[in-house]
Amino acid sequence: MFPKLCMIAVAGLLVTGCAGTVVRKDAPNAASPSGVLKVRTVAVSVSSKAKEQLPDNLKFDVKALVGTVERALTASDLLGNETGNSLDVEVTNVYVRGTFSAVMFGALAGVDNISGNVRVLDANGMPLRTFEISAGYGFGGWAGGQDSIRINYLYEKFAELTRDQLRDQK
Predict the structure, then answer these.
(1) Distance between CA atoms of residues 151 and 14, nearest Å
(2) Which of 25, 58, 102, 157 has the highest count of CB atoms within 10 angstroms of its CB?
(3) What was the pLDDT predicted at 113?
């Protein structure tokens, strides 16, 4: 009986280890354009709630998030000067476990998370597409507990999910 419970617990932890979710927030009757949306600029801000969380999450770097999003969009030919659209990202939640907790306790110490509201705005500042993104990383131990692995995964996942929404992949 005990080995079966251990296997179930391990399977549950593996399933929740790394995840990313997107929730589209476009108005039901809005004329949200379908297809690929390219942007000229990427701007990232931090909500007041997330600013309160930053002193406890020293590993989070807004500039690194911006750079990762810009690289993902450039690689996918979604960032360029031929459009007046802009990408507005508001980071709403940041949680990055301490190194000791991540290595020793893994997912039992919580899940590293970056969440945010993302809007594609036209040249007049009107929203073309709106969505919420949440990227989480729960693995730990000696292989998955290093700070750089965890935080870079969060930046990459956030950028990947943003890119997919600009491609209109629902």
Answers:
(1) 18
(2) 102
(3) 87
